[in-house]
Structures are given as C-alpha cells and as structure tokens.
Write a structure and sequence with these properties.
The chain is mainly α. The chain has nine helices and no strands. InterPro entries: Cyt_c-like_dom, Cyt_c-like_dom_sf, Cytochrome_c_Oxidase_Subunit.
Length: 269
Amino acid sequence: MSSKPKNTGGPLVITFSFVLIGMLAFGFTGLAKTAKDSYAKNQSEITRLQDAQKLELQSRSEKAKAAIAQKAELKAQAASPVAGANVEIGKAKYMLCATCHGPNGEGMTALKSPALAGQSAEYIIRQLQYFKHGVRGADPAKDMQGSMMAPMAKMLSDDDMTNVAAYIGTLTGKAQHTLTGDANAGKAKYMLCATCHGPNGEGMPAMKSPGLTNLPDYYIVSQLQNFKHGVRGADPAKDMQGSMMAPMAKMLSEEDMKNLAAYIKTLAK
C-alpha cells in the first residue's frame, strides 16, 4: 500500500510570502520616512542657503548705494565754491564782518544788516565780488548800507572771500525782524517768487538765487525797493541775476513787499 508524501511546501510558501510582503511593506515605509526626512532636511538647507544669499545680495546692494552716495557727496564737495577753503582763516577774517552782521551771522537790526547764516556760499562770494568791484554799494546816496560794505569787500582777496564764505557756512544765527505784514496776502504774491527762490524760500542753485528764509524782513523790503528803483539789477552786463529781479520788484507796492516779507518769515524752519 503506497502513500503520497504530504505537500508541506504550500503553507511554507504562503508563510514566506506573507513574511516577505511584511518585510517589503516595512521597508517601503522606512524608505518613505527616510526619503521624507531627507527631503525636509534638504529643503531646510535650501531655505537657509536662499536666506543667506538674500542677505548677501542685500548687503551688496546697501554697500553699493553707500558707495554711490559717498561718490555723489565727494563730487558735490569738489564742485562746491568753498572746496579746499580754510575755515580757520575765514573765522579770523569774519571778526570784522561780525561788527555789522553779528558774531553768529544773525544780522543786526540797528544797522539794518542782513543775517548771513544759512546763505549759500556761492551767493555770498558773488555779492562780495559785486561790492568789491562797484556793482553794489557804489552810491551812498542811494544805498547807504551797501556803501558801508564796499570798502570792507575791497580788503578781501578771492581766497579771503572763499574762506569767509566757508566759515559763514558754520554759523547758525537766526534773523531778527522788525516789520509787520499780511502773510496770507504775501503768500499769493510769493507764487511768482517761488519760480526762482523755491517753494520754501530755499533758493535755487541752478538760478543762482539766494535763500530767503533767514533774511530779516526789513532787509527783504529794502532790497526789493533797491531793485524797484534801479539801485540793484539795473545793468544786466554786470548783474544778470539782479536784472531778473528788477522787473519783478517794479510790480510790487511797499505794502506788497511787507506782506511778502511776512510770508517768507513763515517759511523759516
């Protein structure tokens, strides 16, 4: 009597298959977790590198801007009319000027002298040249205050004028005022003045016009009268900028002038 051997391979195969599937499933899960962790780590590193790159680019941009600003500042200084001036010599020369214009460039009401602090160096130098060469202050009967400046300017060389202007640039004196006027009415009149002197009375280098905000009201009125009556700006060949002021001043009454001065006072900071 023969008997067939029992087939034990089937259960073993099935068992092995389940074990293999389990191992594969566990392996895939582990691989997935490892891949996920690796991806997260890589993304974190990429983000860190991107942030570092942004900071580097920002730093380079700021350095470039600073370099451009510094270059512009150096260029402006080189173009300044007082580039290379000796402020200490200017200070010594200014001691005589202080007699009329005040130790801090604030002007003096008793002498009807203007404040100088805050005025552009270019304008100061040009006016000193005008006084020295008779463009201003040549006629005491018409311009008593100007005639007092003429002999002072004649004592100065071109270098002296540059040094004095540089020193005046360090002064901070505030003008004193003596007149009254209607600032609102003056504001309407000032619209035309703003074309050359700026909306805030700051002056415009391109027009070679002076700043007005630290000029005493009495001085503004006296100079408008001088322009109106031909004491200043009568000869374009000698004073081109002044000649542009003359027709403007001829349009103004004395009341207009006081109102303008009253409004200009409100522009001072």
